Amino acid sequence: MAQVKVFHDKTGNTLVVWFGNPEDEYEVEETGDEVLLMKDKNGKVIGFEKLNFISAASEPVRVAFKKFAI
Prior knowledge:
Layout: E1 5-9, E2 14-18, E3 27-30, E4 35-39, E5 45-50
Antiparallel strand pairs: 1-2, 2-5, 3-4, 4-5
């Protein structure tokens, strides 16, 4: 089963989501929308970071997943 890792840094106002192995990060691409894409050696996106992410009030960040049939 694949793992998704989500990190919210309240001090730095960032949200980082990994759906690949963070140790495989080879390059980072800036999208221009305050989003950074982390890629492996093959150019496959394995995670992203959203800059200036501020969650509502003091509530924890909630994450939901939906499985799609392929």
